[in-house]
Amino acid sequence: DSDDSEELVVKSADKAVSGDLPKSDAEPASEGCTPGRLKSIHRSSDASPGALDKDKVCGSRGIMTPPREERCAPEGTSSPTPRPQEAPSSKHPHDAGQGQPPPGYLTQAQVDALLKRQEAQFQERLQRVSQSSDQKEKDLHSKMKEEQKELDELKSAVVEVTQSREALLKMLEQYKDMLAAVVKGKSTIDKDQEQKFKEVELQRNQALEDLSNVEAAFSDVHSKYERTKQVVETLRRNEEALRGAVVEYENKIKRQEATLVTFQKHAEDKMQQASDEYENLKRNTDQELTKMCALLKKAEVKIVSLQDQLDSKSRDNQELTLLLDDLISKMGPST
C-alpha cells in the first residue's frame, strides 16, 4: 500500500512541475525569488542530494506538490496528507493574483516533514520486528536448553533402568541356579530348602514386580522422550518460520528505501526542470516589462509635449482675446 501511495505522489509531482498547470500557478509568489538566488538553491541541492534548505526557498512556494485529492494514500496506510498553507502576499503590482498557492499544494518544509515521518515509521517498524524476533529467538533457545537438559536426564534414567534390568536378569539366573540346586538336594534338607525356596520365591516375585515397575517407568520415559522430540521439532519449524518472516520484512524495507531514493532523485530532476522554466519565464517577463516601461516613458513625454502645446495655445488665445477686446473698446466711442 505504501508503494502505491508513493507512486501516486510521484505522478502528481510530474503533473505539478510539467506544463499542465496555469501560468499564474507556475510563477513565484515572492519578490525575493531572483535568478541568482534560484541558482544558489540549485547548487546547494547538487551538493547534498535530496536536502534543500527551506530558508533558501523563495516564499512558501519553493516547490509545487500534487493536489490533495491525488496525494490521498490508499485505505489502511499511514501516509499523512498535510493541509496546504497560504503563500505570502506579493509586494509587486504585477504579482497581484499570484500570491495565493493553488489549493492542495505543499511547501518544501511539508515535503521534508512527510519524508522524515515516513522514514521514522520505517525505522520504528524495523526496530519492532527486530526486537520481537530477538526476544522470540532468546525464548526459543532457552526452551530448547531446558528440553535438552530434560532429555539428558531422561537418557541417564533410561541407562540406569537398563542397568538395573540387566542386574535383575542376572539375579534371576542366579535364582534359577539356586532353585535347581535346591531341587537336587531336596531329599536331605527338605524343610530348610522349602523355607529357602519360599524366600527365594518371594524375592523372585518382588524382582518380577520391580521388573514390571521398571518396564512401566521405561515406557513412560520413552513416551516423554517422543513428546519432547515432537516439541523440539515444532520449535524448530517455528524458528524457521520466524527467520523467514524476518528476511521478508528486511527485503520489504530495502525495497521501500530504494523507492524513496528514486522518488527523491525524481523530485530533484523535476525541480531543476522547473527552475529552468522559471528562468526563461523571468527573462521573458523582464523583457516585456522593459518594453512596457519604454512605451510608458514615451507616452509621458508625449503627454508633457501636448500639455505644453495646450498651455501655449491657451496663452495665445488669451492674449488675442485681450487685443480684440482692447481694439473693440477703442473703436467703440468713434462709432
From TrEMBL:
Keywords: Coiled coil, Cytoplasm, Cytoskeleton, Phosphoprotein. Residues 1-154 are annotated as: Disordered. Pfam families: TACC_C. Residues 197-316 form a coiled coil. Its main location: cytoplasm. It is found in: Cytoplasm, Cytoskeleton. Residues 134-154 have a biased composition (Basic and acidic residues). InterPro entries: TACC, TACC_C. Residues 133-328 form the Transforming acidic coiled-coil-containing protein C-terminal domain. GO terms for cellular component: cytoplasm; cytoskeleton. One of its GO terms (biological process) is mitotic spindle organization. Belongs to the TACC family. This is Transforming acidic coiled-coil-containing protein 2-like. The lineage of its organism: Eukaryota, Metazoa, Ecdysozoa, Arthropoda, Crustacea.
